[in-house]
Structure formats: structure tokens, C-alpha cells
């Protein structure tokens, strides 16, 4: 069976085609197509990576909703042009100086205070001069992409040997620029991924769990008493055991030990449960003298807002 091929580009009928070495011209045209296609493919990879970085630069919401929020942000960014996402990249992910402000694009929810809410943001700080130069180069890359995709055939003679040679030189320079930009972007993405992996390792650490879940600050820096686990255990004991508004401390201790035995006063920097009540500042105390030779009996109740 005879193999047939179809040329995408054909010589223009201007009366000179007979003088053109058709084989040489077609070879050059194919090389132009190859270099053009390579440039466009790398630009598409660049665009996809930019969109991924922009979509995940700021992620916030209830911990159970983060995956869905991430997917929605990726979907929204996927509809933007390269120019738009490059503007987002240089306007938020890359900054001339770190800002205390965070993006307001994340979804907002009315949630219970007890539900974990997480915001994860990444920023790249640059010196002012470096930032402006990077911003200019990325704008030039967008212009280059638009010129290639929309105006290449208008600007280049593809139907003569000299025209193809000139086009090849232009595309060679384009590919150098595109490669440099893509390598730089991949390097940024690599560092961001490393930062995310480090953050994930921190989130999985016992110290983070103590801080985020149990209210114990790292390095013995103290305790966030209003919401820490041991105080919540005492409140749970109140709900279950209180009589006339007061809870007997010994009963609460037994309740807490049965519910979560791994939470004890020394974990929170206290020598006793009575010290927990005192240090937390969350409870009113009432003491009663026991029988001769017995310890003082302690009762507690949660403070009211007025108290």
C-alpha cells in the first residue's frame, strides 16, 4: 500500500514556485512546524503550572471542606487566560514585600467555633527591583505566547527558503526564552512543594497536635486555657455530674481519667487538678473542710460571662 502524506503548508502560487527547491523548502517547513509546536507545548505546560500555583496559593476553610474548596479553585482558575493568571501570580503569590493581608477569594462559612478552620497561604518575597524585573519578563512571555499563537503566520514567510530560515532563527530564540521561563517557574514550584511538605510534616507532629488540638503551646510556652482539652474535660464532667451548679473535683477527675486518661495536669504544666482549676481562670472554686485529718474538699463551676 502506497503511503501518502499531506503537507500543512504549501507554496503560494506567485509565479516563482518552479524555481524553488521544493524538497529543501518542505524540509525547512517541517522543522519550523516542529520548533513552533515545541514552543507552544512548553507554553501550555507553563500555563498549567502557573494555574496550579495560583489556585493553591491561598486555601482556607473548614478542615473537612478543604479538598472540595481546592477543586473549586482549580476549576475557576482553569477558565482564565495566561495573561490573567500571570497577573494573579505577580499580584499575590509573588510580592515585593510580605504583607499581613490575605486573599479574600476563599469561601466563607458559618461554622461552630469547635470545628477546626485552616488557612494555608504561600508567598514569595522579592526585592523590589527583582520583583519588577520578573513582572516585566512574565508580561513579555505572555506577549510572546500571543504572538506565536495568533500572529505567527502573518509575520513570517513560510513559502520561501529564506523566509523559513528566518522563522527558524526566530523560533530558536523563542524556545530559549520559553525554556528559561519554564525552568524558573519549575524551580519556584519545587521550593513551594518543599515548603508544603515541611508544613505537612509539622502538621503531623505531636507538637502540632498538642498545639492545634489540645491548646498546649510548643516548647513549654504555656497553654491556651479557654479551649484546651483538659479544661474541656472538666466542662464535660460538669455537664454530667454537677449538683446545684457545682461539681465535686474528685468526681470530675475520675470522669476525665476514664474519658481521656492521656490528659493529666503535668501535661499542662500543673502539679495537680486544683492547680489546673486555678491557672486556667475558667472556674469558680469552693472549698470545704473535710473530716479531721482529711484533705480539703474542692468543688468548681464554670465562670459566667458576668463573672
Describe it for me?
With 307 residues, this protein is mainly alpha-helical. Helix content is 55%, strand content 9%. The strands form three sheets. The chain has a three-stranded antiparallel β-sheet with strand order 5-7-6. The longest helix has 43 residues, at 161-203. The termini are far apart. The model is unreliable at 1-8, 15-20 and 102-107 (pLDDT under 50).
Largest sheet descriptor = 3 strands, antiparallel
Shape: rod-shaped
Give me the number of helical elements.
9
Low-confidence stretches: 1-8, 15-20, 102-107
Strand content: 5-15%
What is the terminal-to-terminal distance? Answer: 96 Å
Main sheet: strand order = 5-7-6
- Main structural class: mainly alpha
Helical residues, percent:
55-70%
Q: H/E order of the elements? A: HEHHEEEHHHHEHHEE
Number of strands: 7
- C-alpha-based Rg, rounded: 33 Å
What is the domain total for the residues?
2
Whole-number average pLDDT? 86
Amino acid at each position: 500500500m502506497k503511503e501518502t502524506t499531506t503537507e500543512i503548508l504549501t507554496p503560494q502560487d506567485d509565479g516563482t514556485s518552479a524555481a524553488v527547491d521544493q524538497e529543501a523548502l518542505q524540509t525547512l517547513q517541517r522543522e519550523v512546524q516542529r520548533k513552533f509546536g515545541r514552543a507552544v507545548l512548553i507554553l501550555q505546560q507553563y500555563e498549567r503550572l502557573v494555574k496550579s500555583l495560583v489556585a493553591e496559593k491561598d486555601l482556607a476553610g473548614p478542615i473537612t471542606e478543604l479538598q472540595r474548596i481546592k477543586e473549586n479553585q482549580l476549576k475557576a482558575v482553569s477558565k482564565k487566560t495566561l495573561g490573567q493568571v500571570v497577573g494573579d501570580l505577580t499580584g499575590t503569590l509573588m510580592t515585593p514585600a510580605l504583607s499581613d493581608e490575605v486573599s479574600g477569594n476563599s469561601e466563607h462559612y458559618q461554622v461552630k467555633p469547635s470545628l477546626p478552620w485552616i488557612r494555608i497561604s504561600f508567598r514569595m518575597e522579592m526585592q523590589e527591583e527583582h520583583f519588577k524585573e520578573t513582572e516585566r519578563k512574565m508580561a513579555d512571555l505572555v506577549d510572546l505566547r500571543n504572538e506565536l499563537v495568533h500572529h505567527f503566520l502573518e509575520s513570517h514567510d513560510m513559502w520561501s527558503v529564506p523566509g523559513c530560515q528566518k522563522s527558524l532563527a526566530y523560533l530558536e530564540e523563542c524556545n530559549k526564552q520559553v525554556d528559561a521561563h519554564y525552568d524558573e517557574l519549575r524551580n519556584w514550584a519545587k521550593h513551594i512543594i518543599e515548603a508544603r511538605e515541611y508544613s505537612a510534616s509539622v502538621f503531623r507532629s505531636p507538637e502540632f497536635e498538642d498545639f492545634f488540638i489540645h491548646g498546649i503551646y510548643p516548647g513549654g510556652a504555656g497553654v491556651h486555657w479557654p479551649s484546651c482539652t483538659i479544661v474541656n474535660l472538666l466542662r464535660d464532667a460538669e455537664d454530667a455530674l454537677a449538683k446545684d451548679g457545682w461539681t465535686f473535683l474528685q468526681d470530675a477527675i475520675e470522669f476525665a481519667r476514664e474519658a481521656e486518661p492521656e490528659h493529666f495536669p503535668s501535661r499542662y504544666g500543673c502539679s495537680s487538678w486544683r492547680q489546673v482549676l486555678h491557672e486556667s481562670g475558667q472556674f469558680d472554686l469552693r472549698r470545704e473542710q473535710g473530716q479531721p485529718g482529711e484533705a480539703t474538699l474542692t468543688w468548681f463551676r464554670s465562670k459566667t460571662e458576668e463573672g
